[in-house]
Amino acid sequence: MFQLTSAETLRIVQVTDTHLFGDIGGKLLGVPTYDSMHAVLSQLDAFPFQADAMLVTGDLSQDGSEQSYRLLDDAMARFGAPVFWLPGNHDEPRNLEKVGRERDHLHKVIRSEHWQIVMLDSQVEGAVFGQLKQEELNMLERALTERDDLHTLVCLHHHPIPMNSEWMDNIGLRNRQALMDILSTHDNAKGVLWGHVHQSCDGYVNGVRLMSTPSTCIQFEPQTSGFSLDEAAPGFRWLELHKDGRISTGVERLSHVSFAVDRTQTGY
């Protein structure tokens, strides 16, 4: 468990799906992922928002190399805030864990005076879809029960609700109902935050706010039957977690630079 020091409002930045390579020149569907990530972080440098913590919610690496995780760690160190990692389907868990443990990025529960953030591992090694193991669900239940005085934000990589995109929903969270059942029985569950879908959404189910965030590289076109890339720019999400349980949030996309995407590809 990691204890954050914050004012009455907890300020969070989510960066997701960086898809880095060990080689900084590595490209995903034509996009140099190291350069696109740095462009997003440079825009965050100028954003009027001092984060108390930063969350990186999966697919940190595309090639799973140890060096790719070190590049990410180095890039985000400049913000001076604690950084917490989750694995995605493209991540190599042993290399992520090696670097993540060295740099103190792998805490499962992060707490402040009014909020707790629960980081759930939905990776199924060797698979693209996600699944929460029973111990992850138990850990969430325990955190919600033990600190029912704290508002709770739950983070994972795979989407726990349908995105109305046939190909994407086939690779979402397989046991999404188990997660939603737990959240529905705890009034202190306020929000769920994820990556994986390379697009932004924001809505409510049973009073819980559900949010996804753009990748720092390629974007997927919403509501398509098959794999399709979007023209939308890379970005990040900011969140303000208020002491009364409200969540203020928004997505900021690159405005000063663009990256050409190879549209001849049919997958990634």
What is the domain tally? 1
Radius of gyration: 17 Å
What is the general shape?
A: globular
Please tally the helical runs, counting DSSP H or I stretches of 4 or more residues. 6
Strand order of the largest sheet: 1-7-8-9-10-12-11
- Given helix and strand content, the structural type is alpha/beta
Low-confidence stretches: none
Report on the architecture of this protein.
It contains 6 helices and 14 strands. The mean pLDDT is 95. The N and C termini lie far apart (35 Å). It has 268 residues and is α/β, with parallel strands linked by helices. The strands form 3 sheets. It has a 7-stranded mixed sheet, with helices on one face. Strands 6-5-2-13-14 form a 5-stranded mixed sheet, with helices on one face. It has one domain (2-253): Purple Acid Phosphatase, chain A, domain 2, CATH 3.60.21.10.
Give a quick set of tags describing it.
single chain, iron, cyclic-nucleotide phosphodiesterase activity, Purple Acid Phosphatase, chain A, domain 2, seven-stranded mixed sheet, GpdQ/CpdA-like, five-stranded mixed sheet
